[in-house]
Amino acid sequence: MTEADRIRIRYSPGSDDVGAALRAESFEQFLRRSREGRVAVDDEWAEVINDGCGRTRAVPLRVEGFDGGTAVGSGTEFEFRAETEE
Predict the structure, then answer these.
(1) Neighbours of 17 (CB within 10 A)
(2) pLDDT (tens digit, 9 = 90+) per residue, 7-65?
(3) What is the pTM of this model?
(4) 64 in Cβ contact with 41 (< 8 Å)
């Protein structure tokens, strides 16, 4: 199992706040630890993000593709796109 260089992920809802929370280094570190191991296109992950002021929001994530290998590892980067983006 080879570590992926980058994993492309779709998310919904596509607000700027949600995108910013997903792209935070702390959330990406969380994903590297919690999703370590093999991934496949169309895998769906139900995650919860901090929506500011102590609020949380459920955000469904779907793996769209990957570059390099097929596993999340310590060096994997994530590319997040809202469902409404091309």
Answers:
(1) 13
(2) 999 999 888 889 999 999 999 999 999 999 999 999 999 999 987 778 899 999 999 99
(3) 0.89
(4) yes
User: Does residue 32 contact residue 69 with C-beta atoms inside 8 Å?
Assistant: no
Short-list 19, 25, 8, 32, CA closest to 82 = 19
Q: What is the DSSP string of 23-51?
A: HSHHHHHHHHHHT-EE--TT-EEEEEEEE
Full residue range of the structural domain in which residue 60 is found: 4-82
Copy the structure tokens of residue 1: 């199992």
Q: How many domains does the chain have?
A: 1
What is the CATH classification number for the domain harbouring 76?
3.10.330.10
Sequence letter at residue 8: R
Count CB atoms within 10 A of the CB of residue 64.
Answer: 15
